[in-house]
Write a structure and sequence with these properties.
α8 packs antiparallel against α10, α8 runs parallel beside α13 and α13 crosses α15. By secondary structure, the protein is mainly alpha-helical. It folds into three domains: 95 residues, no CATH class; 97 residues, Tyrosine recombinase, N-terminal domain (DNA polymerase, domain 1), CATH 1.10.150; 189 residues, Intergrase catalytic core (hpI Integrase, Chain A, Orthogonal Bundle). The longest helix is centred in the N-terminal third of the chain and has 25 residues. It is built from 15 helices and eight strands. β6 and β7 form a beta hairpin.
């Protein structure tokens, strides 16, 4: 048997100091709340009797309104229970409200289809993975937007931190997809403006550290003898090429074609995948030396420079194919670089993205103007490049402390 009661939600105080009155539905120890549209101050509500106190100027009218809503809800509840003996608290809530609430996962599925038309494949894939991770945690798809409370989100955060071992930055990223669904549903007027539990979630973003290879480590990596067949030596060359070619990202290096590289001028002319901006710059002689080793006698302008993505037709067929192939080869590259880093006993995990950090940090240390570094890295804002300048300044401070008496 379900129970109904009028309650003041003291945890939902608005900016004017008022609190909303809800109809609380309890069924099989599951609780749901239905808004009445009435808000009161704390001293205007008699919680014991479930009534508006007489100190409210419109107490009689308010009580009549609330009593009617409670009576209507009781009638709907009784009718629903007669028709369905096993009706859930959520279904009772739907029946009382007179319209179905919005299922979070059904909405997310539909929203992801729309995002695929405007967002990158990798963004949509990450959102889908984060939604699925949340679904696995709650253990059901029978979840409405208003079921996702601050308490549930905090439980999820604790699960990600303690069970999955995620950092605060990773957790923030995992919540981004959930938050996006709330914002989009609100913009479509499917949920109330007040229904946004994320504003009460307090997570502090951790400051990341920019690791990079110094000259000695670069030389060790360059001269390391790689035994056996496979793509390990190719991935090593791609890493070194990126270091000497403005810190190009993996997606741009692995998909670099001969038509995008001027052999005479040693210049890259390519539309960058992340920014979709055409980028052109001259690479260092060490980068051009690497390129020369891969040039075939009969060079097809549309073939890839580095022999990792071998099926050009499949890669170019769709943006989904591009994203999948880049992700696949990136994982393979990560595996080989991680192994190389361990063989060379580097004090950090060797990843392809470190080539970008290595270029920026060493370029600044060697005196290149920060504007040039920013341009070569295709940064939209020089403030992004200044992160690397801070690393150089930090090293300078350490040097002062160490060597000046």
């Amino acid at each position: 048997m379900a129970s109904l009661k009028l309650v003041l939600r003291t945890q939902k105080k608005d900016n004017t100091g008022h609190y909303p009155i809800y109809i609380r539905v309890i069924k099989d120890r599951k609780t749901k709340f239905i808004t009445t549209g009435v808000k009161l101050k704390l001293n205007e509500w008699d919680d014991e009797n479930g009534r508006v106190k007489k100190n409210h100027p419109n107490s009689a009218r308010m009580n009549a309104l609330l009593l009617k809503q409670l009576s209507d809800a009781s009638a709907m509840l009784a009718d629903s229970e007669r028709k369905t003996n096993n009706i859930s608290a959520r279904r009772l809530k739907d029946a009382i409200k007179g319209k179905p609430t919005v299922n979070f996962f059904d909405y997310a599925d539909d929203r992801l289809k729309k995002l695929a038309l405007t967002h990158s494949v990798s963004t949509c894939r990450n959102y889908k993975m984060d939604i699925k991770k949340f679904e696995n945690f709650v253990g059901t798809r029978d979840l409405d937007f208003d079921d996702i409370t601050v308490l549930l989100l905090n439980d999820y955060i604790n699960y990600l931190r303690k069970v999955k071992g995620n950092s605060s930055n990773t957790i923030i990223g995992s919540l981004k997809a959930l938050s996006h669904m709330f914002t989009s549903a609100n913009n479509e007027d499917l949920i109330e403006d007040t229904l946004f539990p994320f504003k009460k979630i307090k997570l502090k973003k951790e400051k990341g550290t920019r690791t990079f290879l110094d000259n000695d480590q670069l030389e060790k990596l360059k001269n390391h003898q790689i035994e056996g067949p496979g793509k390990c030596s190719v991935f090593r060359d791609m890493f070194l090429f990126a270091v000497y070619a403005g810190g190009l990202r993996f997606s741009d290096v692995v998909s670099l074609k001969w038509s995008e590289y001027d052999l005479k001028e040693h210049r890259v002319i390519k539309t960058i995948k992340k920014t979709n901006r055409q980028h052109q710059f001259k690479v260092a002689s060490k980068a051009s030396d690497i390129i020369k080793r891969y040039r075939p006698k009969n060079c097809n302008p549309e073939s890839f420079i580095f022999p990792v993505l071998e099926d050009v037709a499949f890669f170019e067929k769709s943006k989904e194919n591009k994203s999948k192939e880049i992700a696949r080869t990136n994982r393979l590259c990560g595996y080989h670089l991680l192994r190389l880093g361990k063989e060379l006993k580097f004090p950090f995990s060797l990843t392809f993205h470190l080539s970008r950090h290595t270029f920026a940090t060493n370029a600044l240390k060697n005196g290149m103007r920060i504007e040039y570094v920013s341009k070569l890295m295709d940064h939209g804002d020089i403030s992004t490049t200044q992160i690397y300048a801070k690393i150089v300044n930090s090293e300078l401070d350490d040097a002062v402390d160490k060597y000046i008496f």
